[in-house]
Design a protein that fits this description.
- The chain is an alpha/beta fold.
- The protein has one domain (4-248): 3-Layer(aba) Sandwich (Rossmann fold), CATH 3.40.50.300.
- The chain has eight helices and ten strands.
- It has helices spanning 44-51, 74-79, 97-102, 116-129, 148-161, 178-193, 205-211, 235-248; strands at residues 4-15, 18-29, 33-37, 59-64, 67-68, 82-86, 166-170, 197-201, 214-219, 222-228.
- The strands form two sheets. A six-stranded mixed sheet has the order 6-7-8-3-9-10, with helices on both faces. Strands 2-1-4-5 form a four-stranded antiparallel sheet, covered by helices on one side.
- The longest helix is centred in the C-terminal third of the chain and has 16 residues, at 178-193.
- It is globular.
- Bound molecules: adenosine-5'-triphosphate (ATP) and magnesium ion.
- Magnesium ion (MG) binds next to helix 1.
């Protein structure tokens, strides 16, 4: 049986009179990819900011590896092995891959100087581990020369270096082409193969369907659908259900006529 890595219980968060997250319970098991989906403003980012300690919930509980946590904050969340990768904001483009991976947590030698050689070899190892196949790049390459998908790869490599058990990706593929998205997926697969977990937030349901083992759908701050991938025959069925939820607030019995290429949100 898989082990529970993190769990939110009855978490609520309001901004003024907006109930961004309302009584949400959600878990992530070890080694699984949870796809978190829902329309704009559904509360996805708020929820993961609570998990990563950026925002405190108004009420509710957070459990990490079975232990209830208290006075949760960003530092504690990272210590507990939770790393969040935000689209585009994660890296400094004019710096090298190696600098980006170790920024703020440099490897130093016994004199306290930065150990460039060690950082270089560690960066090489991490890039290999997550399946950086391009021969063109090495740890000294500037991030600015990388494609969008590869940049996400560097951010994921950095999270792995920090020994993350859970990597949260908030819309990592929104601005990416199909080829670049495939690259990010292969990085995520490598993370999963290492027994780590991922929360993948995305607007493109086809993307989320491809990469996730399980789905949670948020609608106006509430979890309205949770399903294993094995329970959902196709991305289209997932989309149908989401449309039905968007209209009625719950999973409806009435069938939704399926049109090709339906996308939710702005992607
Ligand atoms: N810092 C904030 N101050 C005030 N309201 C906020 C804040 N952050 C989020 N909200 C509101 O909370 C609700 C949920 O927002 P959130 O960003 O969590 O949604 P989301 O599902 O991530 O949406 P998107 O898909 O557009 O990223 C929205 O109504 C939003 O306007
Ligand atoms: Mg968001």
């Amino acid at each position: 049986m898989s082990k529970r890595l993190v769990e939110l219980k009855s978490v609520t968060k309001s901004y003024g009179n907006v109930n961004a997250v309302e009584n949400v319970s959600l878990y992530v098991d070890e080694g699984e990819v949870l796809g978190l989906i829902g329309d704009n403003g559904a509360g996805k980012s708020t929820l993961i900011k609570i998990l990563s300690g950026v925002h405190a919930p108004d009420s509710g509980e957070i459990y990490v590896k079975g232990q209830k946590v208290s006075r949760w904050n960003a530092a504690k969340s990272r210590e507990a092995g939770i790393e969040t990768v935000y689209q585009d904001r994660a890296l400094v483009a004019q710096q090298t891959i190696v600098r980006n991976i170790f920024m703020g947590r440099e490897i130093t030698n016994f004199l306290g100087f930065m150990d460039m050689k060690k950082q270089h070899s560690e960066a090489e190892r991490l890039m290999r581990e997550i399946g950086f196949t391009s021969k063109v790049f090495n740890p000294s390459s500037l991030v600015a020369t990388l494609s969008g998908g590869e940049r996400q790869g560097v951010a994921i490599a950095r999270a792995l270096y920090y020994d993350a058990d859970l990597i949260i990706l908030d819309e990592p593929t929104t601005a990416l082409s199909l080829t670049e998205t495939q690259k990010v997926f292969s990085f995520i697969q490598a993370v999963k193969d290492k027994g780590r977990s991922v929360i993948f937030i995305g607007h493109n349901i086809y993307h989320v369907y491809d990469i996730a083992d399980r789905f949670a759908v948020l609608d106006r701050g509430k979890v309205v659908l949770e399903a294993l991938k094995s329970e959902v025959p196709s991305a289209e069925i997932l989309i149908q259900n989401m449309h039905s939820i968007a209209r009625t607030g719950h999973i409806g019995a009435e069938p939704v006529e399926l049109r090709g290429g339906i996308r939710l949100g702005d992607n």
